[in-house]
Structures are given as structure tokens and as C-alpha cells.
Design brief:
Blueprint: H1 2-26, H2 31-35, H3 40-110, E1 114-124, E2 133-135, E3 152-154, E4 160-167, E5 172-176, E6 183-188, E7 195-199, H4 202-205, E8 210-213, E9 226-229, E10 241-251, E11 254-261, E12 270-276, H5 282-288
Antiparallel strand pairs: 1-2, 1-12, 2-5, 3-4, 3-12, 4-5, 6-7, 6-9, 7-8, 8-11, 9-10, 10-11
Length: 289
């Protein structure tokens, strides 16, 4: 038993010595390297093999370190990109709010006698059965509508969208121009432009168009003419752009035209409601006098 242990010890020591001598011989300029130089051509294949393994091992370690570094840099870049996206979204929202304020100021300047309420489209139910838009302004925002009251609604370019038809505490419904039941008094935008009626039509609605009728005989009207609100009836302030004439017809129902509204409902996100200022009560007026 003792002999076996001594033999095993001798073998291990011999292997360690051989490996040590072999590695020492690989060191350029070492004593062992100079002593073994005469027989180096015999050991060269083994030396090359060991050097190749060492180089591969070193390359693998370098690749692992570089991979870990790249992963850290990628994580930092992802975090930086996420922060930049958040900043960009915040800037876009601030820019959007600034543009809304600027547009509201512009509309308020144009319609000084009106209260201008900005609103967002909550949902649209425009289709075969329901022809309304819903916005996020209601009675709590000062949009107090009686049974016979309504307010004009325009887009950011001050083009007419339609009118409000009802309001609850937090929202209101808007009837677009192309919907059946929508009607207004319009005027051809010329020096001597005639007054016409613009209203929704069941057949034209699916094409996003309105009907223009009650056109006087021999009226000077042509395709491409712009239609503005005339102000007749008191609901819509005069001069709001409505749309453009796209076709003229003269048939059994008389002279009528097709009108394409300027506002495109499918891209609409923001609206402005023009609420007429309430006149001061008599008591308040007398007190002021």
C-alpha cells in the first residue's frame, strides 16, 4: 500500500517537474531555453500546440470581457434611449399644448365676442345610425346649453365642423355638417356672393359631402367657390369657412350643388367650441349705471 502511494507521489512530482520545465523552456532567453535550443526542433511542434492553446484561451477571455463590456454599454444606451424618448414625448406634449394655446388665442382674437373652449375628441359615433362626435367639455366647463341652445364648433384652422346639440356635466355631443339634420345659412365668398343653404344629405354623407340648395336663379356660382357662414339665424358667427363647391346640378329638384367641407372628420382630434357671451342681467346693468 505504501509502495503504491510512493509511486503515485513520484509520478505526480515527475509530471509537475516536466510541465514546469516545459513551460520554462517556452520563455524566450531563459537558461533552459538556451540549453534545449539544440533539440528545439524536436519540441517545436509541442511548443506550437501549447502556444496555440494559450492564444485561444487568451482570445476567449478577451472575447468574454469585451462581450460583458458591450452588454453594459448596450444596457446604458437602452436606458439613455428610454430617457430621450420620455423627454421627446414630454416636449411633444408641451409643444402640442403650446400650439393649442396659440390657436385658441388666434380664434379668440378672431371671435372676440365669443368664449372659446378647447376640447378633445373622446369618441366618434359617425356612421349609419349615429351621426355625432363626443368631446370632453360639458356644463362644468361653462358649456350650459338649454333645450334650444347650441354652439358653433370649429377646428384648429377655424373651419366649421358643426354645432353642439347637447351637453352633460363632463362632455358634449357635436353634430357634424355632413350629418342629416345639420343645416346652416351660407354665403358664396364673393363681393356679390348669394346666400344659400348648406345641410347634410343621406346620399352625400357617405362621400363626406354636404348639399347646397336654395340657390337663386341665375346666381353667379361655380365649382371651386368657397362657402362661408352668413351669420343669418344667429347660431353661427358670420365668416367661418365651411367648404368648397365641387359639383353643380340642375334637375327636377332645382339648382343645387355638392360641397366638400374643409374639415376631415377622420383626422380630427381637437376642436374649439364658440360659446356666446351671456348678456348682463338688467339688474346688473342698472347697478353698473
Amino acid at each position: 500500500m505504501a509502495r503504491r502511494r510512493s509511486r503515485l507521489t513520484i509520478v505526480i512530482v515527475a509530471i509537475v517537474v516536466c510541465v514546469t520545465l516545459f513551460v520554462w523552456s517556452l520563455i524566450p532567453g531563459s537558461i533552459l531555453s538556451r540549453l534545449l535550443s539544440p533539440i528545439s526542433f524536436i519540441l517545436e511542434p509541442a511548443q506550437n500546440a501549447v502556444m496555440s492553446v494559450r492564444q485561444r484561451f487568451d482570445g476567449m477571455l478577451l472575447s468574454i470581457r469585451e462581450g460583458a463590456l458591450i452588454q453594459r454599454e448596450n444596457a446604458e444606451l437602452r436606458e439613455e434611449n428610454a430617457n430621450l424618448r420620455q423627454q421627446l414625448q414630454r416636449l411633444e406634449e408641451e409643444n402640442r399644448e403650446f400650439n393649442q394655446l396659440r390657436e385658441a388665442i388666434s380664434i379668440k382674437t378672431t371671435f372676440q365676442e365669443m368664449n372659446v373652449l378647447h376640447a378633445n375628441i373622446l369618441s366618434d359615433s359617425f356612421g349609419t345610425w349615429f351621426d355625432v362626435l363626443r368631446v370632453d367639455r360639458g356644463r362644468r366647463d361653462g358649456l350650459a346649453l338649454g333645450e334650444m341652445d347650441a354652439a358653433a364648433v370649429v377646428d384648429v384652422d377655424m373651419n366649421l365642423i358643426g354645432r353642439t346639440i347637447s351637453a352633460d356635466e363632463v362632455s358634449a355631443k357635436v353634430l357634424p355638417l355632413v350629418a342629416e339634420g345639420a343645416t346652416l345659412a351660407g354665403r358664396i365668398n364673393r363681393m356679390d356672393g348669394v346666400t344659400v343653404r348648406v345641410h347634410g344629405d343621406a346620399l352625400l354623407k357617405d362621400r363626406g359631402l354636404c348639399m347646397v340648395d336654395r340657390i337663386p336663379p341665375r346666381a353667379d356660382i361655380a365649382v371651386g367657390d368657397e362657402v362661408l357662414t352668413s351669420g343669418d339665424g344667429g347660431l353661427f358667427p358670420p365668416g367661418i369657412p365651411v367648404g368648397v363647391i365641387t359639383a353643380l346640378h340642375d334637375d327636377e329638384i332645382g339648382i343645387w350643388a355638392e360641397l366638400e367641407p374643409y374639415t376631415q372628420l377622420d383626422t380630427l382630434t381637437d376642436v374649439f367650441i364658440l360659446v356666446a357671451d351671456e348678456p348682463a342681467e338688467d339688474g346688473q346693468s342698472d347697478a353698473a349705471d
